[in-house]
Amino acid sequence: MFALGLLLNFAGIGLFCWLIFTLAVYALPFFVGLYVFMLALHGGAGILGAPLVGIAAGGITLAIGQTAFAMTRSLIIRAIIATLFAVPATLVGYQAVFAMSQIGVPSLVWREIFACLGAVLIGGAAWTRLAIFTETGQLDSGRAVGSNPQPVLTAAAYRQ
Fold it and tell me: ∠128-132-135 over CA atoms, to 5°?
């Protein structure tokens, strides 16, 4: 029974870590959605309207961020957009790792070290996942992306 408990704890911690790394890129849309939800709730939107407005605001934030990141060719603007998504993820990573490290690490110094390392890793994961969402390819003017031009047949090809 003890071994089963250890295995389930290990699996649970692994699932939690995977979930944090996977959802790190959604920290900014979540915070925006939560903020708009609270504004709508206090503004009188009610119990049914406030969640809808919050979910819509979070989804629009994610869509605008990914679209802007994909459409811009400027590295500076891409870095700014990626930073806007990575900073909330970094804060979430710090708080999550600090809370988890309180379970098994008695030293405050080591908890801070682990929390800072987790913040850097999770913020970097959010930065990377945002970059993965967009495939950048070379665009040739005058033809659509993914179209393969056919070779031109000349008069010599018809005579053969």
Answer: 140
Residue spans of the domains in the chain: they are 25-134
CA distance 74 to 82: 12
Distance between CA atoms of 97 and 120, rounded to whole angstroms? 11
Q: What angle do CA 152, 155, 157 make, to 5 degrees?
A: 70
Give the distance from CA 154 to its chain's centroid: 51
pLDDT tens for each residue of 91-132: 999 999 999 888 888 899 999 999 999 999 999 888 888 777
CB 86 within 8 A of CB 128: no
Query: Which pTM was predicted?
Result: 0.69
Sign of CA dihedral 16, 17, 22, 27: positive
CA 47 to CA 40: how far, in whole Å? 9
